[in-house]
Amino acid sequence: MTARTPLARSDSETLVQDREAGLERLLEIMRRLRDPDGGCPWDLEQDFRSIAPYTVEEAYEVAEAIESGDRAELCSELGDLLLQTVYHAQMAEEEGAFAFADVVRAVCDKMVRRHPHVFGAAAGHRTPEEQTADWERIKAAERGAKPARAPSALDGVAVTLPGLTRAVKLQNRAARVGFDWPDASHVLDKIVEEARELAEADTAADREEEYGDLMFVMANLGRHLGIDPEAALRRVNAKFERRFRGVEARLAAEGSSPAQSTLAEMDAHWDAIKAEEKAARAAAEDRA
User: Domain named NTP pyrophosphohydrolase MazG-like: which ranges (predicted)?
Assistant: First the structure.
């Protein structure tokens, strides 16, 4: 483990206040937050499990900033995500497992190892297909070096990934060894089959299982169509939120609210907002 030598308090304070100090400043801020002598009580109470949900949340906020196109927000969210890495590394250093420098060394070694066509004596031109094959071969060799269950094409797909994302990754892994439908039409047929089975399910357990099957096949359809199901769902969530807030605003202008309105009244506002959005898109396309 490559641990850092603690700084004298005056040197630490100088570093913390130096806005140009970069990563070393962030590492020192995190060390100070976790310092039993004068650190933050909340930060001192945290452990890997309690911080993990924040790490996942920050990754989603990075994706949201990318989707919005707001580069200033992306800069801020990438900083928050970097802080999560520093946070975990600081806790690991405290227990003597590893330090931030070990995290950096490990990922650098991995990138060099997995890109022999770029780095080292084997560097040279490779097609994207050849590079992907090399990447998978190297990853398989890395997995084989770890004690685990019997080797599988599905090894290395994290169980903590969001469900739709993990479904696509599992399907991609299976497809690489030939276990896949030949095109999207077969997936659409399977969706019809799974929807029928869901409609016929007569117990709560069966309905949950059949609903899961349908979601899994929907993720597979997205994969065949080149659509990221998580990204598509995020966009439709944003669209629903935008339109529903519009309905609320229109009702408020009438001195009403959703709770005081009928479904037909809310649907009428929804349809009007939808039509306005469609017209605005058409006008923007005409200008382009």
Answer: 46-119
| C-beta atoms surrounding 131 within 10 Å | 16
Q: Is CATH 3.40.50.1970 the right assignment for the domain spanning 9-113?
A: no
Q: Is the pTM of this model over 0.85?
A: no
Write down the CATH number for the domain with range 163-227: 1.10.287.1080
DSSP annotation string for 164-213: HHHHHHHHHHHHHTT-S-SSHHHHHHHHHHHHHHHHH--SHHHHHHHHHH
pLDDT per residue over 74-120, tens digit each?
A: 999 999 999 999 999 999 999 999 999 999 999 999 999 888 888 87
Structural domain boundaries in the chain: 9-113, 115-144, 163-227, 230-287
* Residue type for position 63: A
The count of residues in the chain is 288
Check if the beta carbon of residue 231 is closer than 8 Å to that of residue 67: yes
> CB burial class (10 A; 0-12, 13-18, 19+) of residue 219?
buried
- Average pLDDT for 125-147: 68
Q: Where are the alpha helices (DSSP H) in the chain?
A: 9-17, 23-33, 41-45, 48-68, 71-94, 100-114, 128-144, 163-176, 184-200, 204-225, 229-253, 263-287
Question: Is 28 within 8 Å of 35 (Cβ atoms)?
Answer: no
